[in-house]
Write a structure and sequence with these properties.
The complex is a heterodimer of chains A (about 120) and B (about 120).
Chain A (H helix, E strand, L loop, with lengths): L2 E3 L4 E5 L4 E3 L2 E3 L5 E7 L5 E7 L5 E3 L5 E5 L4 E6 L8 E8 L9 E2 L3 E6 L1
Parallel strand pairs in A: 2-12
Antiparallel strand pairs in A: 1-4, 3-9, 5-6, 5-10, 7-8, 8-9, 10-11, 10-12
Chain B lengths: L3 E4 L2 E4 L5 E7 L6 E7 L5 E8 L5 E2 L8 E7 L2 E6 L8 E8 L10 E2 L3 E5 L1
Parallel strand pairs in B: 2-11
Antiparallel strand pairs in B: 1-3, 3-8, 4-5, 4-9, 5-6, 7-8, 9-10, 9-11
Chain lengths: ~120, ~120
């Protein structure tokens, strides 16, 4: 069975500083990895994904993530945090293969960017 | 971009009544839609996978007779919470896959429906 771990419930960072939101995964085979962001009382918005190719993936709003196969990690990063980045961030994984398109989500990490 | 809508965005109902939540893909056809439930400050829990023209596949522990799912067309799936109780109060989110895209593409999420049962 596949699983995702987001070890931090909350991450606080000062505006303008770099931010990292951690994610590790467990899946059979090569994973499809995703990051989503959720603002209060809203659905999830897609940020970026890793399917294959370059380990550094660039996504929306200046976010990027690095796929590290040896460490089974897919940490989300941004060079300079904005107050508007404050939200709930979810990492998700899908095992490649026929039939199932289900995503398994981590528990989420609340990011607070302090002015 | 692909847009998924949900209706209503919030609903309050009395205990014992039934509530229907709609999930629509507005600019693409979705052979597969997913229904999630999210408790406060928690992750999304997959309830069921809805396939157009066939019965939904429910996750373990989800009562199929309580959470009725219908996916009658390529753009609409509905979730009906029957005989709702206060413990069914939650944030329900749907997502959809574009059938024209490959397996590696992301799911598109609706904005969610806040259900409160009094």
């Amino acid at each position: 069975a596949q699983s995702v771990a987001q070890p931090e419930d909350q991450v606080n960072v000062a505006e303008g500083n770099p931010l990292t939101v951690k994610c590790t995964y467990s899946v059979s085979g090569n994973p499809y990895l995703f990051w989503y962001v959720q603002y209060p009382n809203r659905g999830l918005q897609f940020l970026l994904k890793y399917i294959t190719g370059d380990n550094l993936v660039k996504g929306s709003y200046g976010f990027e993530a690095e796929f590290n196969k040896s460490q089974t990690s897919f940490h989300l990063k941004k060079p300079s945090a904005l107050v508007s980045d404050s939200a709930l961030y979810f990492c998700a994984v899908r095992a490649p293969g026929a039939g199932s398109y289900q995503l398994t989500f981590g528990k989420g990490t609340k990011l607070s960017v302090i002015p | 971009g692909a847009v998924v809508s949900q209706h209503p965005s919030w609903v309050i109902c009395k205990s014992g009544t039934s509530v229907k939540i709609e999930c629509r893909s507005l600019d693409f056809q979705a052979t597969t839609m997913f229904w999630y439930r999210q408790f406060p400050k928690q992750s999304l829990m997959l309830m069921a996978t809805s396939n157009e023209g066939s019965k939904a596949t429910y996750e373990q522990g989800v009562e199929k007779d309580k959470f009725l799912i219908n996916h009658a067309s390529l753009t609409l799936s509905t979730l009906t919470v029957t005989s709702a109780h206060p413990e069914d109060s939650s944030f329900y989110i749907c997502s959809a896959r574009d059938r024209e895209q490959g397996a590696s593409y992301e799911q598109y999420f609706g904005p969610g429906t806040r259900l409160t049962v009094t």
